[in-house]
Design brief:
6-stranded mixed beta sheet; 5-stranded antiparallel beta sheet; alpha/beta; globular; 11 strands; binds adenosine-5'-diphosphate; Rossmann fold; about 35% helix; ATP hydrolysis activity; binds magnesium ion; about 280 residues
Length: about 280
């Protein structure tokens, strides 16, 4: 049984949230569509009237100064933000046409389709092999041969197989920071997601490891939709197709990356990308 079959068999209760036709734009499918999203942490208004469409198999970069709501927005897309008790939201986010903020949408289902990679590599204190096999095992896969296949495929997919294939039983903590981050990406790939969220995935890494992850992202977008928060504007310019500039909880401008960096329409975008603040 492959993981896809296992995922289907996992028997998620059919959700009864509103289903909308999958939106298209410029012949590209919209994976995540955000309409008038507001989010508060208690009385802190962290996201204000966000409207943003994320396209399938593109790299979407989110840039903006510290505290402007980038991580909050990312964590709203997989509903991780709900872990904060004081959070409340208004507005609509659809994932492939289905409203995810609705209570009827099973969060477990969302998390198997929308993987996340964090700023600081966070492998489990387990072997390299077990880090990757963890998700598939949760999905009920016990067959050693299938697990072996998933582990190899995921590690290859994250460009780290050759570096670890002879030490799969060793603890993941023995890897370098850059390797740990690629391992975490491999762990995400092992659950066969559709979207990968990345929150400043290279900010704790040296330039060489950063370069490897950037190359990897270019490969991954053939198969996945990627949303990456980065405070590194050169990185956004290098690897993304579209860029959203956040400021004080608002989206100031969202456009093709080339346009944002060469011909922005808002003065504040221009000031930010030319380094006048932030
Ligand atoms: N768990 C939380 N509880 C209360 N306020 C928070 C929490 N997380 C973030 N915030 C606030 O929300 C705003 C946006 O934060 P964040 O999304 O982390 O910004 P960024 O990722 O752009 O640096 C900030 O004002 C921050 O202080
Ligand atoms: Mg952040």
């Amino acid at each position: 049984m492959s993981l896809s079959v296992a995922k289907e068999k996992t028997n998620f209760k059919m959700d009864t949230s509103v289903v909308r036709p999958t939106a298209m734009h410029e012949n590209r499918k919209i994976v995540f569509d955000t309409k008038d999203l507001n989010l508060w942490y208690g009385s802190t208004h962290a996201l204000k009237d966000i409207n943003l469409s994320v396209y399938e198999k593109e790299v979407t970069a989110i840039i903006g100064p510290s505290g402007c709501g980038k991580s909050t927005y990312l964590k709203t897309l997989n509903r991780m933000v709900e872990l904060v008790p004081s959070v409340h939201t208004s507005g609509i986010i659809t994932y492939n046409g289905r409203e995810i903020l609705s209570k009827n949408f099973k969060v477990e289902e969302l998390r198997t389709s929308v993987g996340m990679v964090f700023q600081k590599p966070n492998p489990f204190p387990k072997s390299i092999y077990d880090n990757i096999a963890y998700g598939p095992r949760i999905h009920g896969i016990r067959n050693k041969k299938i697990l072996d296949e998933i582990v190899e495929k995921s590690l290859r997919g994250a460009f780290i197989w050759d570096e670890v294939k002879d030490r799969l039983k060793e603890n993941a903590y023995g890897l370098s920071g850059g390797q740990q981050q690629r391992l975490c990406i491999a762990r995400t790939l092992a659950i066969e997601p559709d979207v990968i969220l990345m929150d400043e995935p290279t900010s704790a890494l040296d330039p060489k490891s950063t370069h490897k992850i950037e190359d990897l992202i270019q490969e991954l977008k053939q198969d996945y939709s990627i949303i990456i928060v980065t405070h590194n504007m050169q990185q956004a310019a290098r690897i993304s197709d579209r860029t959203a500039f956040f400021l004080n909880g608002e989206v100031v401008e969202y456009d093709k990356t080339d346009t944002i960096f060469t011909n922005p329409s808002d003065r504040r975008t221009e000031d930010y990308i030319s380094g006048r603040f932030g």
